[in-house]
Amino acid sequence: MYAVIATGGKQYRVSVGDVLEVEKLEGAAGDKVELPVIMTVDGETVTAGAKVAVKATAGILAQGKDKKLTIFKYKPKKNVRKKQGHRQYFTRIKIEKLA
Fold it and tell me: How far is Cα 60 from Cα 74, in angstroms, rounded to an integer?
């Protein structure tokens, strides 16, 4: 059985025991979090939309920051240059149950 969950404006295909990094969620390491399920697939049975009565429970493993991205913009022949850096926050979670 697997499910499709939505968090941080993205959708993820998960099953029990999966570890994934999602957009930052509130909570500390060890906390439990419930994520909304959009669709479930159990063998040949597909359930989607308002009929889904399943919640995904996940445990927070860690909070962190991703690798640094460098953004460099410039306009040719105008001596205009802009350099920025960005590190995106993430939360590492482990799917514990789909029930």
Answer: 40
Q: Provide the whole-model pTM.
A: 0.85
| Domain enclosing residue 72, as ranges | 2-98
Total structural domains within the chain: 1
Helix H, strand E, coil C: the string for the chain is CEEEEEECCEEEEECCCCEEEEECCCCCCCCEEEEEEEEEEECCEEEEHHHCCCEEEEEEEEEEECCCEEEEEEECCCCEEEEEEECCEEEEEEEEEEC
Structure tokens at 69: 């991205």
User: What pLDDT is recorded for position 64?
Assistant: 97
Lookup result for tokens 């927070």:
60
